[in-house]
Specification:
The complex is a heterodimer of chains A (about 180) and B (about 100).
Chain A lengths: L2 H4 L3 H30 L6 H30 L12 H28 L5 H37 L10 H10 L2
Helix pairs in contact in A: 2-3, 2-4, 3-5, 4-5
Chain B lengths: L6 E4 L1 H9 L2 H15 L9 E3 L7 E7 L2 E11 L2 E9 L8
Parallel strand pairs in B: 1-5
Antiparallel strand pairs in B: 2-3, 3-4, 4-5
Classes of the chains: A mainly alpha (about 180), B alpha+beta (about 100).
């Protein structure tokens, strides 16, 4: 089986995965937020909250690996579009949406970090999770740029390029005329 | 080094990306193009390899010293082919 066949529909697969990840991330942040509120009234859930934060951190690290894999697959020549009409543009739009969700989730945990002692177990774990969110954000950005570059490859290979400009003024005038 | 650039070409994606930019960003693209024709290219325009696995594709920050947007391009025989211009999204890794 060729690499292209193996990865047929990578854009569709990535979109589906990104949507599930968005939902899980939002749910995870919501659960941590709830437990944090409970913490104000009782000490019992600290272990429980630490466990939740650990699981979230692991999930983010796994997701970073997954999206780094998407990037590597795109750069390795995997087919993005599929027979259902899903395109690289759809995938790029979904990845941008996912990046916004990651930013929002990160804000939730930055607020939690501000509420707890930095040396506490929860504080340490929250910092670890915030760093893991940075890793997954960068991995998503890498996948997004790999898709952007693939589109440029396709354009150039198909000869979809402007005329050649021997000076800056003509080049800039061309861009402005097409703006 | 990338050597002297004597001509430029734009991919249609680059032209499309350029349409989405605001006036300040378009002016920055124009400044970048002007700089690339200079010999030598100003040091502030630092070329980065986009990916070690994809030799020959460079990225240049649209705004010198800021990494909010980047342009990617290839340079072959003095001809720079502009591929994309888009945001370079990042979040602070050490809050």
């Amino acid at each position: 089986m060729s690499a292209t066949t193996l990865h047929a529909g990578l854009a569709g697969l990535t979109i589906e995965h990104a949507r599930r990840f968005e939902q899980h991330s939002r749910d995870g942040a919501r659960r941590v937020g709830f437990v944090t509120k409970v913490l104000r009234f009782a000490f019992a859930p600290i272990d429980f909250l630490c466990g939740m934060l650990d699981r979230q951190t692991l999930r983010m690290k796994d997701q970073a690996v997954w999206f780094n894999g998407v990037r590597a697959s795109i750069e390795g020549g995997a087919e993005l579009s599929d027979s259902q009409g899903v395109t690289s543009a759809d995938m790029i739009a979904e990845l941008e949406k996912l990046q916004q969700v990651i930013r929002d989730v990160r804000v939730t945990f930055l607020k939690l970090e501000a509420q707890v002692k930095p040396t506490s177990r929860i504080g340490q774990r929250t910092r670890g999770l915030i760093a893991a969110l940075g890793e997954v954000f960068d991995a998503v950005e890498g996948a997004r740029w790999a898709a952007l570059e693939r589109e440029a490859d396709d354009d150039i290979a198909a000869g979809r390029v402007s005329p050649t400009f021997a000076n800056a003024a003509d080049a800039i005038a061309y861009l402005n005329a097409n703006a | 080094m990338v050597g002297r650039i004597t001509a430029v070409v734009f991919s249609t994606r680059f032209v499309r990306d350029h349409k989405k930019l605001d006036a300040v960003q378009r002016a920055a693209v124009a400044g970048c193009i002007e700089d690339l024709y200079l010999d030598p290219i100003p040091e502030a325009r630092r070329f980065h390899l986009l990916n070690p696995k994809r030799a020959g594709i460079y990225s240049v920050d649209l705004f010198s010293g800021k990494t909010t947007h980047k342009i990617t391009l290839t340079i072959t025989d003095g001809i720079a082919t502009f591929r994309r211009v888009d945001t370079h999204a990042a979040i602070d890794r050490s809050p």
